[in-house]
Amino acid sequence: MSDFASFIEKQMNSFFGDAHFDDFIHKELVPLSHIKEKHSSWILEVDLPLVDKKNIEITLLDEHLTVKAKLTKIYCISRGSSVTEFDYFKKTIKLPSGINTKQISAIFKNGILRITMPRLANGKKISIE
Q1: Quick one: which of 26, 38, 28 has its CA closest to 88?
Q2: What stretch of H or E contains 69?
Q3: What is the mean pLDDT of the chain?
């Protein structure tokens, strides 16, 4: 990144905060998502239109899950005389507590990525004699 771009990024971040311009600087769109709690798991659904399954990457690092997906075609946003092109979706969430990270699974169907995050088993069943 050039010195000028770095300067502008710092100015925008100091005025608006990091999240507002991060997508424009890194050319990544933040997809719509929804997380819901079930009895034995958490379900994260991420909308990924214009994405092929083979272009989705899910990574788990420390307590964060990141979904990054390359678009099949560039998406453009025009603002006045400026045009910004986006070619990726990226979403990072902090995992809820008590997740069994070894059993996280994902399914991609009809543009929706569904990530199931099972809870760790709490307690131990005690048999009655």
Answers
A1: 28
A2: strand 64-79
A3: 84
* Percent of the chain's residues with pLDDT above 70: 77
Q: Where are the alpha helices (DSSP H) in 47-105?
A: none
**Domain boundaries 31-118, corresponding CATH code:** 2.60.40.790
d(CA 114, CA 34): 10
Global confidence as pTM: 0.73
Q: Which element (helix H / strand E) includes 13? A: helix 3-16
Burial of 85 (0-12, 13-18, 19+ CB in 10 A): exposed
Residue at 79: amino acid letter: R
